[in-house]
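Most newcomers find our protein records easier to grasp once they have seen one. Nothing more is needed to start thinking about how sequence determines fold. Here is such a record, shown just as it appears in the course material:
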Amino acid sequence: MKYLTLVIVAIISFLPASAQELSANQLLEKAINYHDPNGNWARFNGTLHVTMETPNTSNRKSKIIINLPEDYFYVKAKRDTITTEYTVKTTDCSITLNGKTNLNEAQLKANNLSCERAKMYKNYYTYLYGLPMKLKDKGTIIHDKVERKTFKGKTYLVLKVSYEKSVGSDVWFFYFNPETYAMEVYQFFKTDDKGELQSDSGEYILLTETTVINDIKMPKNRAWYYNKDGKYLGTDILKN
């Protein structure tokens, strides 16, 4: 019996980790190890070229520079005849419209340009292209239980993530391949005044193919859909 027990233990020790119980933090570490095996995100300094395709609208092409050590962010976006540029360096911000920097209030308002919007873009691109590493950021609450869910006919290991009030009120779910730990889907929901999840709110994002930038595996395609009815919203395509 003792010999049989040892054999069983030995077999179990060689089973893939997904066949055993993983804690939320263990799953996150495995996912980060897949996407950023050399820990490069913390010192990321690179350029992303992203094309956004949306139904019934011209494509928007963006050049994005993220330099985390220098706390520098730049995005140049072109759609039709309009080109906007935002630069954020620490707390300083600059705005350019079709090559012009001396913009009056009417021009800024008419084109929905502001430093608040510049910082929103910085947070947006840094967060999404920094996943899953960004889930280690302060203010992120990783829920203990790892769930196994089927989404679009495929089984995933799922992390539930919420945030401290000072960071945000949305609830996110991150879907990882149970064999490779690659992040393949994420989904977010709004919450009501009581902090309860609103099931008909938010969106889900399907991630397909991979582009490697600075040794970090990033999703090439991010296709966005409404949770409530599955309506397709658009796709961000990483062109690097």
